[in-house]
Amino acid sequence: MNTYDAPAGPGDDWPGLVRLWEVVDAPKNCKVEIVAGIVTVAPPVDNYHHLIAGGVQRSLYGVIPETWGIYQT
Length: 73
Prior knowledge:
By secondary structure, the protein is an alpha+beta fold.
């Protein structure tokens, strides 16, 4: 994950962060988020990630209570 450096000033408040988030020129399919007051850019998730997450999910269903759920978002 990368952060987008911006000069201090209007980006310090929420509306300024949202304006900065809107104009970040991130590569296609990257996720641009505001995390803890910082605009971040994360690369897209690849298929290998989904394979690992699916395996972890299958393993967890064997050991957690039936009333619990596992969700990939």
